[in-house]
Amino acid sequence: MAAGKTTVRVVNLGRVSYGRALEIQRQCVRRHLEASSRFPNTLLLCEHRPVYTTGIRQQPYPPEEELRLKLLGADFFRTDRGGLITFHGPGQLVCYPVLSLACFKKSVRWYVGELEQTVIGLCSMFGLDASTSPDTGVWVGDSKICAIGIHCGRYITSHGLALNCNTDLSWFEKIVPCGIVGKGVTSLSQELGRDVTVAEATPYLLQAFSERFQCHVVSEDTAVQMPINTGG
């Protein structure tokens, strides 16, 4: 761990299309990679409109299957993150950390493990016993509550995690989530027997992240002070 605590800024994008959030992530990554830029480590928080995404481990998704999913009312994207197909949508807290691991630890394996432990810490704040498994992500029993899929180039991270808060889980029934057969998907609301919104879960995520990554988290209501374009 680098000496001292790193400051990580939080930008809440609200409910946004996957394509728009992807564009903003790419802007942030480019700023990090510019030698003259001192772009801050950033957490982009959002909810997505219904979308299915695939990762780099996915074989080319059959066009007829892509069409079937789109006819359900969802978008479809092929991405450069790790992992296989998953769903993002309303009621899901999505966090895209765009970080320079040089400020933390230059290890992708360490980073993924810390994201998992962050969510496990959040779940414990809600009284839930969550854990890891040989499959990436965070689980409550045999059901995944949080998917994790990242990209890292030159130790700059993008993509991230998606925590089911009060997500409509029926969207997952249309696919084999993350390519894992025989296991389920769950949410904070389902496990706790009450409605847990993204707004309720967000401060717990930020607290758990700051504790796990030993950083100062600075929340901003808007991106006005951030050198990125969140319009559109």
TrEMBL record:
What keywords would UniProt list here? Acyltransferase, Mitochondrion, Transferase
Binding positions (substrate): 81-88, 147-149, 160-162
What name does UniProt use for this protein? Octanoyl-[acyl-carrier-protein]:protein N-octanoyltransferase LIPT2, mitochondrial
Q: Where in the cell is it found?
A: Mitochondrion
Q: Tell me the pathway.
A: Protein modification; protein lipoylation via endogenous pathway; protein N(6)-(lipoyl)lysine from octanoyl-[acyl-carrier-protein]: step 1/2
Q: Which domain of life is it from?
A: Eukaryota
Q: Which GO terms describe its cellular component?
A: mitochondrion
Q: Which reaction does it catalyse?
A: octanoyl-[ACP] + L-lysyl-[protein] = N(6)-octanoyl-L-lysyl-[protein] + holo-[ACP] + H(+)
Q: Where is the BPL/LPL catalytic domain?
A: 37-217
Q: What is its EC number?
A: 2.3.1.181
- Gene3D superfamilies noted in UniProt: Bira Bifunctional Protein, Domain 2
Name the residues annotated as site: Lowers pKa of active site Cys: 144
Biological processes per GO annotation? protein lipoylation
Spell out the catalytic residues. Answer: 178 (acyl-thioester intermediate)
Statement: the UniProt record of this protein carries the keyword Repeat: no
Identify the coding gene.
LIPT2
Extract the coiled-coil ranges from the record: none
Major enzyme class? transferase
